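Bit of a strange request maybe. I'm writing a small parser for C-alpha cell strings and I need a real example to test against, not something I typed by hand. Could someone generate the C-alpha cells for this chain?
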Amino acid sequence: MFASAPYLDLLGPLSSALGVNTAHADLSAFFLVSAAFALIAVLLPSAVCALVVPAALFGMVFAGRGIGVVLGYELTLQVMQLMMFQAISLVLMLGAMRQRTKPMPNC
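Reply from user aminoacidic:
Good idea to test on real output. This should exercise your parser:
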C-alpha cells in the first residue's frame, strides 16, 4: 500500500520502526476518515454537513504547519507545497458545501 523504504532518509527521526508505523497508521486514518465523510456527503445529499469533518482535518493540518513556520521551523518548498494542497482541499470542501446547499448550511 505505502512503501516507506524510499522515504526513510526524508523521515529522519521517524525512520525507526515506531516512526514508520505511526506514519502509516496516522496518514491512513487521516485520508480514510476524510474520504469516508466526503463519500457520505456525496451519497446522502441531506448529509452535506459531513464535509465539515474533512474540512476541519485539512484546516487543522494547515494551521499546524503555519504555527510551525511561525515558531521557526524551516519553510521549504515541500512544506509550501503541502500547505497549498491543504488550503486547496479546505477551499474545495467548503465550496462543495456551499454549492450543494445555498445558503451555507448551519453545521
